[in-house]
Amino acid sequence: MRSIRTSAPPRRGRRTVLTATGLVAALALTATACGGSGKDEASDKPDATTSQAAGGDGGKVTIPSDLADRLKEHGIDVDRWKDGGWEDWDKDKWLREAKDFVNPVIEGLWKPERMRSAEEADKTVTTQDASAAEGVSDPEPAPVDAQAEKTPYHENAAPVGKVFFDSPEGPSVCSGTVIKDVNHPGKSNLVWTAGHCVHAGGEGGWYRNLVFVPAYNDLGKSEAELGSASASEVAPYGNWWADWASTSGGWIQGGSDTGGDGAPYDYAVLHVKPEQGGKSLEETVGAALDVDFSAPSAAEAGEMGAWGYPAAPPYNGLQMFKCLDTPGRFSLSPGLPAMYRIGCTMTGGSSGGGWFRVRDGETVLVSNTSIGPMDNTWLAGPQLGEDAEALYQNMSRTYGGQ
User: Fold this and answer.
1) 3: closest CA among 117, 119, 130?
2) Which ranges does the record mark as transmembrane (predicted)?
3) Domain limits, the chain
4) In the Cβ-directed half-sphere of 148, how many Cα atoms lie within 13 Å?
5) How many alpha carbons fall within 13 Å on the CB side of residue 291?
6) Cα distance between residue 325 and residue 347, in whole Å
7) How does pLDDT run across 244-273, given as a tens digit for each residue?
8) Cβ partners under 8 Å of residue 242, min gap 6
9) 163 and 175 Cβ atoms separated by less than 8 Å
């Protein structure tokens, strides 16, 4: 989650009473019934194909020739990459263009202990940024205490999981949601998350070793219990590597450590494949959600719920939490599109986690966690309109069946 630094005392609005709403009930049914420029550009790469650990090569990574050529084009020593050079970060060579996303599978990299070491992806926005559009934003909502999701998660929640990746600062973590693939019904390999969980924005490039773990820690085990848990208990549906990623041109151009002009475009779609064979993600998990690209206004949207794995204190990133509230408008600038904002105490690590609402009796994804204040009293997420739908459709049509 991007955090906003605010030194002024927060304004308080009407607190929403949390009840056993239709949204929660619908989510449970959904999960169990199935066994600048805001233009979006496909930041995908056909050469970002899988490479597997070579059993007879000392555990080194085997890189397909087309990907090896791509790395060489960027001045990367392929032999060093295979021997662990993927851990080295040179800002002058940090892949940043849409066509430059590369994410070869390093089998066994994301072991349970490495997952636990990953820190939340966070962003900060200054007080000036937060107050720049007071005439556009609605009054700050009252905080809503995040509630722990019931276990097992795969029976009680939408198909939410954790997104792991390597950044220049080390192993990092966000949240994500399995979404339906309109062009490949029942066999989706698509995951919705935040743009800042895949790309650093205007001053950086693509993150590395992107992996999605659906229903992470499905039984909600404690840190002590996870220390002796098996890989299947930590990742009940396995690890799913992103072989393609798409985020918005607005985020790539305008995203920053303070959210920046890219904040309203802070969303992304991953196309994933299992680390070791198997069926599609949707078939494996047994659930996927439609995405609502109608971009309803905050006044029209009704109640929303945000789900994710908050990792910054007082949370530790091991359990899934949720918040329900009625959204208001939030904008960092009068010239930028308004975002949704709800009261919620989830912290960093919940970034990219889906926001859901009930539309025509069905639970749909309507936004994702993007930014929030340093005191962790609310969250804001982008409205998903035509540009977001174009990004999604391009990913689905071009790579969905692969």
Assistant:
1) 130
2) none
3) 2-399
4) 15
5) 31
6) 16
7) 999 999 999 998 876 788 999 999 999 999
8) 103, 191, 198, 210, 211, 212, 270, 271, 272
9) yes
